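Action item from last meeting closed. Structure (515 res):
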């Protein structure tokens, strides 16, 4: 793979200083002796690294131009999908759409006799070549045909280990095994992204070779071609179909959208729109990090995501069984990993028809946009202070991420209101009284005008950012369903040289995945 080949081969006479020099922050550079020790360890133990050394002369004779990958802020697509990352995390850029087109990624090695050779993700040495520090002995990774453990008299249709199961096994924490992979810091995030894409590639390959089992004849008729506007008759009957069962595909999103609209036709418009965001400071996460002897949770994204899934299931069970909003007829949600650093879920709640067009008193009962009095409700005050205040922004903080053209794109601060009403645009205006209660953050006083709407019981119980909005209107329903089924995040990337006259530039439309 070119990226890793340059790192391990280019200018091997000065590779220690070159590796340290690639870091953007010289103050955080590792000790030179540590890097030299790791290099010596790989030279002595890894057959793959010794094979890389043989290409040194070739690369010295053919120096390459240094390139940079940059995500430009200017964009023409949907801002919710094409916004640039706001957190310093590892992400993967996959060029183009994840569709039924042929999807391949591999490592290119230079063989002694066969020249340039491709090694795909099914090769046993794929991960060892990409991550020599995680595999210092160059050991084999996933191989097709690994048999599952014998489970006694039980018989199962699947007898071989799936690639997804293999990587799930690798990411588990076990007391009686080494933890090299889980202790490599940010490299773990890159490994997770790479492993996810190898699993996706294998899924695409299976779909491509099992078209008959997916009943593709249902999609290849003449009427389907006419409905899709296909004008080239040579393509009819030769398409490779990506079924709706493939998570994240266009048919998957379209099916979910139509299922949501069917629920809407049955029970009416959704009543509540809830956004549930992961809290990295949950005590369960800190307890797990303490158990395994790690203090920093920024690189253990597996623990954070696992706990978020558990909390989300508890939240859905609480909404449906405990009924904090009264009787629930239906609910649906989608989980997103946007470029803000934490997973979050968008949830639509359909209440009983008797709850349609709620009174201002009922709105104030289930949704609040005020800071509780610390003397009356200390738990509510602490939860709102930690999770439900917007800002500071505006003139007090012009560098806030919500600022666009000198204004807050979330329209904070709001206006004071003595009672909840429905505005002319069918969106609710919540009660925000001037109670004199405030919170000071970064030297700025934040009162009720900066409170994000919430439900007090949910907020205190789950200790996370939980935004609750009323959405019982015809104008908001289509926006909500389109929003929660808009697909994965995307980014526009540019590849450019480091020279002053940049004549080599290529803009790429990429799918963006976090580690």
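Sequence:
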């Amino acid at each position: 793979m070119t990226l890793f080949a340059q790192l391990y081969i280019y200018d091997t006479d000065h590779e220690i200083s070159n590796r340290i020099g690639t870091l953007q922050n010289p103050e955080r550079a590792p000790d030179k002796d540590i890097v030299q020790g790791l290099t010596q360890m790989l030279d002595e133990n890894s057959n793959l690294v010794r094979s890389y050394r043989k290409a040194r002369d070739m690369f010295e004779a053919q120096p390459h131009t240094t390139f940079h990958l940059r995500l430009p802020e200017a964009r023409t697509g949907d801002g919710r999908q094409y916004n640039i990352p706001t957190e310093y995390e590892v992400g993967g850029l996959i060029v183009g759409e994840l569709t039924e087109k042929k999807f391949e990624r591999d490592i290119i090695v230079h063989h002694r006799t066969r020249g340039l050779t491709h090694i795909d993700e099914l090769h046993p040495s794929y991960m060892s070549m990409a991550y020599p520090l995680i595999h210092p002995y160059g050991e084999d990774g996933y191989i097709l045909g690994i048999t599952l453990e014998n489970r006694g008299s039980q018989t199962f249709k699947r007898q071989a280990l799936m690639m997804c199961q293999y990587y799930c096994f690798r990411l588990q924490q076990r007391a009686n095994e080494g933890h090299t992979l889980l202790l490599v810091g940010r490299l773990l995030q890159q490994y997770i992204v790479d492993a996810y894409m190898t699993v996706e590639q294998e899924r695409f390959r299976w779909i491509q070779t099992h078209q008959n089992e997916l009943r593709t004849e249902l999609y290849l008729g003449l009427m389907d071609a006419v409905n899709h506007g296909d004008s080239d008759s040579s393509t009819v009957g030769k398409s490779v179909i990506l079924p709706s069962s493939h998570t994240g595909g266009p048919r998957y999103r379209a099916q979910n959208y139509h299922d949501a609209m069917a629920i809407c036709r049955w029970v009416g418009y959704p009543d509540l729109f809830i956004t549930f965001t992961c809290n990295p400071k949950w005590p369960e996460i800190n307890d797990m990090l303490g158990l395994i002897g790690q203090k920093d949770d920024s690189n253990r994204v597996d623990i954070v995501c696992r706990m978020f899934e558990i909390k989300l299931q508890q939240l859905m069970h609480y909404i449906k069984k405990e009924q904090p909003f009264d009787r629930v007829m239906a609910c649906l949600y989608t989980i997103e990993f946007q470029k803000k650093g934490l997973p979050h879920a968008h949830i639509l709640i359909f209440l009983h028809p008797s709850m349609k067009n709620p009174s201002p008193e009922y709105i104030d009962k289930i949704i609040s946009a005020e800071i509780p009095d610390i003397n009356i409700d200390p738990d509510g005050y602490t939860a709102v202070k930690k999770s439900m205040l917007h800002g500071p922004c505006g003139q007090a903080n012009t560098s806030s991420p919500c600022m666009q053209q000198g204004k807050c794109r979330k329209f904070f601060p709001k206006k004071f209101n003595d009672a909840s009403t429905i505005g002319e645009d069918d969106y609710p205006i919540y009660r925000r009284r001037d109670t004199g209660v405030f919170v000071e953050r970064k030297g700025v006083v934040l009162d009720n005008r900066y409170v994000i709407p919430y439900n007090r019981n949910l907020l205190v119980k789950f200790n996370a950012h939980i935004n609750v909005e009323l959405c019982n209107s015809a104008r908001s329903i289509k926006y909500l369903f389109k929003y929660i089924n808009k697909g994965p995040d995307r980014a526009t990337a540019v590849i450019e040289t480091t020279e002053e006259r940049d004549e080599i530039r290529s803009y790429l439309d990429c799918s963006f995945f976090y580690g």
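Note appended to the action item: Confidence is low (pLDDT under 50) at residues 1-13, 74-79, 94-103, 499-509.
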